[in-house]
Structures are given as C-alpha cells and as structure tokens.
Automatic annotation (TrEMBL):
Belongs to the chromate ion transporter (CHR) (TC 2.A.51) family. It is a multi-pass membrane protein. This is Chromate transporter. InterPro entries: Chr_Tranpt_l_chain (IPR014047), Chromate_transpt (IPR003370). It is found in: Cell membrane. The gene is chrA. The lineage of its organism: Bacteria, Bacillati, Bacillota, Bacilli, Bacillales. It comes from Pontibacillus salipaludis. Pfam families: Chromate_transp. Keywords: Cell membrane, Membrane, Transmembrane, Transmembrane helix. The chain crosses the membrane at residues 7-28, 74-97, 109-129, 141-173, 193-212, 224-243, 289-309, 321-339, 369-387.
Length: 388
C-alpha cells in the first residue's frame, strides 16, 4: 500500500505543476522519476519514450503510466494516471460548469507558466542529449530530425522521422556492442497482455455498433472518446481537430469548443483532458467522467498489452540498434518542439527571456526541483509584469 500511495502522491504533484505540454511533461518526468527517485535508469526511460511514441494516445501520459506500472504493476499505473491527470480533469470540469465566466488565457500567471516551460524543456534537452547523443552519428541524427521537424510539424511526419531514426540506428550500430539497460520490471505476465490487447480490439470494433443501436448519450460519449483515444497519434494538439470533427455541431457549439481549448492550455497535465471539458458541457459531471475514462482507456489496454513483451523485444540486437537511432531522433523532436511551440508561444519580450534564464539557472546550476521552480517562476513573472 505504501508504494501505491507514493506513486499517487508523486504523480499528483507532477499533475499540479507540469505545465507546457507533452515535451515539458517528459522533462518533468525525467527530473522526478529518473534523476531524483531513480525508479529507472536513463536508458530504460528513453526506451519507454520510444515505445510510447509508436502507440496511439497521449505519449507523455503513457510514459507516466508505464513508470507507474514498472513501479507498482497495473494498480501502480492507475495510481500514476489518477495523480497526473486529476488536477486538469477537475479544473476543466469546473471550467465547463462555469464556462461563461471571464477567460484567463491572458493572465500574467498563465504567461509565467509558459515561460517556465522554456527552461524546463531546455534543461531536459541538455540532460537527455548528454545521454542519448554522445557521439557524432547520433548527434547528426538528432540535428537532422530537428531540421526536418522544424519544416514539417505533423504527427505523421514525426512518426516518419522516428522510423528514419530507427533505420539509421540499425545501419550505424548493427555490429556495435550495445548495452541492454535495466529490465523493465512488471508484475503482470504476457498472458495478461494478450487478454488486454483482445479487449482493446473488441471494444474498438463493437462499441460503435452498440452506440448506433443505443439512445444513451453516455454510450455515445464513450464511443466517440474511445475511438479518438485509440487512433490519434502524436497526442496534444493533434487530438483537437479529430475531436472538433466528432463533437462540434453534433454535441456542442464551436464557441464552446474553442473556449474549452483555451482553458485546456492554461491548466497542467495532458491535453487529452480536454475530453473532460467536452463531456461535462454535454452531460454534466457524469459526462465529463465518462469522457475522461473513455479517452484514456485505450492507452491502459495498449500498455498492459505491449509492456510484457518489451523486455524480450529490446534485447534483440537489431532492436537495440534501432532504439539508439530512435532515441537520438527523439532528442531532435525535443529540439524542434523547443522552438515551436514552446519558445514561440512563451518568449515575446525581454522580461520573458530574463525570467526564463532565472528558471533555467535554478534547474541546472542550483539543482532545484522542477515543481519548486514552477512556483517561483510564476511568482517572479507576476511581480515583474506588475513592475515592467
């Protein structure tokens, strides 16, 4: 029980402070789970990121859920998910209930959250770059990946770049002596994984049939969000156009949709909790809960299905070589995302640069925890905005 409480509390603190989108979330996770708590090593963490990049759903949330499963089995994964997503789910449900109140997207404290994300992501790139791009070939893969993604920032092209990184790793490192990293410890077996994948496929196939035959709005909500959570790659902003196509006009107005989109960007945690807002607008708090569960359920089923096979798969020499290239490409993805949307949305004035530099110094030189830096940065930005 102590382990589950620890997972829940650590994830909850991250859920309260992890602003800045999926790239920033990975940075917060790396600082908390790898550097501070050492629940897994850098190599295993990077491999989990690589795995989750290939799965549909919210990649950063899936990484957090995976770490919870490594630490405490399926229940540990549930605790990690509850802790990380609960703050944004509650915030967006409350916003949906008071949707006609004044917007907060222009508040100085919200701007401060964007500014601190610049420092957090820069810190993550430096830490992960040292580990994942230690030689010229991998540095080259990362730089080429970043250049490509700066020109073509679509979810499909991200997958293409990661696949190109995998092929490069196989070509460059197929004859090299490669470390395996720690095994990802799990408390459930491959049989459980097969059952989970079967349930995932069955729900994806039969829920639309049930929804067409049913007049229940809750079944309709579950159907929409389960399908979107099952097929969207790239997470974050990529889920928004899919949701717009599914729910605008059919369930809510475009104005309400855009209001929720703005609120989603002002709260911590994954953007997939936008589902909580939409479900609440459609059918109150119960609708928000159903939409949230349906949106994230595919991620749980896929992770339970895939993780038991991961230790065996990542020991295959060609797979390990491919992962070297994938991990280098992920650093390139971080570099590209650091510029757009992190830098472009946050840095617009000298005070933004100044506060962000202070945040980076606290993280990199003073080794202060990310959650504390978030709080201090927001307070500093509010004060600076009032003076300048």
């Amino acid at each position: 029980m102590k382990t589950y409480i620890e997972i829940l509390l650590v994830a909850f603190r991250l859920g309260l402070t992890s602003f800045g989108g999926p790239v920033a979330h990975l940075a917060y996770f790396q600082d908390e789970y790898v550097k501070r708590r050492k629940w897994l090593d850098d190599k295993s963490y990077a491999d989990l990121i690589a795995l989750c990049q290939f799965l549909p759903g919210p990649a950063s949330s899936q990484v957090g859920i995976s770490i919870g499963m490594v630490r405490g089995g399926i229940l540990g994964g549930i605790c990690a998910w509850i802790g990380f997503t609960l703050p944004s789910i509650v915030a967006l449900i409350l916003f949906a209930l008071t949707v006609h109140s004044l917007g907060i997207q222009d508040a100085s404290w919200v701007k401060g959250l964007k500014v601190v994300a610049v420092a957090v992501v820069a810190h993550a790139i430096m830490n992960m770059g040292k580990k994942l791009t230690p030689d010229r070939p991998r540095i080259t893969i990362a730089i080429l990946a970043a250049i490509a993604l700066l020109f073509y920032q679509t979810a499909l092209f991200q997958i293409v770049v990661i696949l190109a990184g995998a092929m490069s790793g196989i070509i460059l490192y197929r004859n090299a002596e490669l470390p395996e990293g720690q095994d990802v410890g799990l408390r459930f077996k491959k049989r459980t994984g097969i059952i989970s994948l079967t349930i995932f496929a069955a729900l994806l196939a039969f829920i639309p049939v049930v929804a067409n035959a049913s007049s229940s709005i809750y079944v309709t909500i579950f159907d929409i969000f389960y399908r979107v959570g099952s097929i969207v790659f790239g997470g974050g902003h990529v889920v928004l156009p899919m949701l717009e196509a599914e729910v605008v006009s059919a369930l809510i107005s475009k104005d309400l949709f855009l209001a929720g989109y703005g609120a989603t960007q002002a709260v911590p945690g994954p953007m997939f909790t936008f589902s909580s807002y939409i479900g609440t607008v459609v059918k109150g708090v119960p609708g928000g809960i159903v939409a949230s569960l349906a949106m994230f359920l595919p991620s749980f089923l896929l992770l339970i299905g895939v993780l038991p096979f991961w230790n065996s798969l990542r020991k295959v020499k060609r797979v390990r070589a491919a992962l070297l290239g994938v991990n280098a490409a992920v650093v390139g993805l971080l570099l590209a995302a650091f510029y757009d949307p992190i830098w472009t949305s946050a840095i617009q004035a000298p005070k933004d640069v100044a506060v962000s530099l202070g945040s980076f110094a606290l993280l990199y030189f003073w080794k202060r925890p990310a959650w504390l830096v978030v709080i201090l940065t927001v307070l500093a930005y509010v004060v600076v905005s009032a003076i300048v």
